[in-house]
Specification:
42% of the residues lie in helices and 9% in strands. With 380 residues, the chain is of the alpha/beta class. The chain has a four-stranded mixed sheet. A three-stranded mixed sheet has the order 4-9-6. A two-stranded antiparallel sheet has the order 7-8. The radius of gyration is 38 Å and the shape is elongated. It comes from Solanum stoloniferum.
């Protein structure tokens, strides 16, 4: 009985040990699994920290590729938006940048910049739309009007979004000259612009775009009306306080509606010699827009000027302003005479009857007959 009891005791004691061993093994396995999980989690956290530290470096290398901050394209492409916050001093300084190397590392198609100086709307815009159509790669447009004027051109118009930051410009005052310099400076920001034409809202083209582009692009000279007028409305407007910077023998008169190449346009916006004298001493009845550009360009670059204007006006009716032409004036005979020309001039040192490319002043009522007869007489 003792043995049995002993054996039974031993058997009972063995039964108690088996569950205890399983619990120990389960605990060890759980601890091992937890350790492995913690190790994996620690490795993931370390990798994430390494990636986070590397990402800014990777991004800093990638960003310039997308933004093209240092690419040539960023320097030579024209501004898609003409609005900017530069004042005139900043604008003229920016426009004065001139490449010193003649050989270009890119393909450049030279364009004509059409610079419209106007108080408000462009009533003859439909005629100009017809003129520009199909020549989008060869021209650019800039408009200077009163700051208070809000243009309403449709998005399909070539004039849409072409207004530059402007200021009030008064006839006969230095502000009108400032407006023209402002137009030139904004156009100079586009390196493709090679020739610059000042126009008003009452101007019309007398030939199609191809004729005008070829005429201007092939000319050796710029078309600025310059002459010495000994009368009271010429030399009589000279102020002796301008001497010796501007002498009376250098004093010239001419039209504000001119065409200049890029070199002369840069000279105009960078002028710090003659402009201050005209601003200080040329005041009504000295009309600065009739004297500043002709005199300054005559002094600096007389060999680059034709001394004639491309824009026709009629002064035969007398008065302080040229004649204005309305609906009744625009006839077959009138347009034929304008387009064919009735004068001779010198073009590239040769005599020609092709002297005028534009005409003014046309009122809004002239639009309908101009559109009706433009294809027959103006070629577009």
């Amino acid at each position: 009985m003792k043995v049995e009891l002993g054996n039974m005791g031993i058997l009972e004691h063995g039964k108690d040990n088996k569950p205890l061993s399983l619990k120990v093994i389960q605990f060890l396995l759980l601890f091992l699994g937890l350790g492995i999980a913690l190790s994996i989690l620690s490795m993931c956290m370390l990798r994430f920290a390494e990636i986070k530290n590397v990402l800014p470096v990777v991004q800093s290398r990638i960003n310039p590729c997308f933004q093209q901050q240092n690419s040539l394209e960023n320097w030579i492409r024209p501004l898609s938006n003409l609005h900017h916050s530069m004042n005139d001093a900043e604008l003229f300084w920016r426009a004065s940048f001139v490449p010193q190397m003649k050989n270009l590392p890119f393909k450049r198609t030279p364009k004509i910049a059409f610079l419209f100086l106007t108080r408000g709307s462009l009533p003859l815009a439909p005629l100009w739309e017809r003129f520009f159509k199909g020549n989008e790669e060869l021209y650019s447009i800039y408009i200077h009007n009163l700051p208070s004027y809000k243009p309403d051109f449709p998005t399909s118009s070539v004039f849409y979004g072409r207004q530059i930051p402007s200021q009030v410009a008064e006839w006969g005052e230095i502000s009108i000259t400032d407006a023209e310099r402002r137009l030139l400076a904004n156009a100079l920001l586009d390196i493709s612009n090679e020739w610059f034409i000042i126009l008003s809202e009452s101007c019309i083209p007398l030939h199609n775009f191809s004729v005008i582009y070829r005429y201007i692009s092939e000319s050796k000279y710029s078309f600025v009306n310059v002459f010495d007028d000994p009368r009271s409305i010429g030399r009589g407007r000279y102020n002796w306080k301008m001497s010796p910077v501007v002498k009376i023998t250098q004093w010239r008169k001419g039209s504000q509606w001119f065409e200049v190449n890029r070199k002369l346009a840069v000279d105009i916006v960078t002028d710090e010699v003659y402009y201050p004298k005209f601003k200080q001493f040329c005041k009504p009845s000295c009309y600065v827009d009739e004297h500043y550009f002709p005199t300054m360009l005559h002094i600096q670059s007389p060999h680059l000027l034709t001394n004639t204007s491309l824009t026709w006006v009629d002064w035969h009716r007398g008065g302080a302003h040229p004649a204005t032409f309305g609906k009744a004036d625009v006839t077959d005979k009138f347009l034929k005479q304008l387009s064919e020309g009735q004068r001779t001039c010198v073009y590239n040192n040769q005599t020609t009857s092709y002297c005028l490319l534009f005409a003014r002043k046309f009122s809004p009522s002239a639009l309908d007959p101009l559109l009706k007869l433009s294809y027959k007489y103006l070629g577009f």
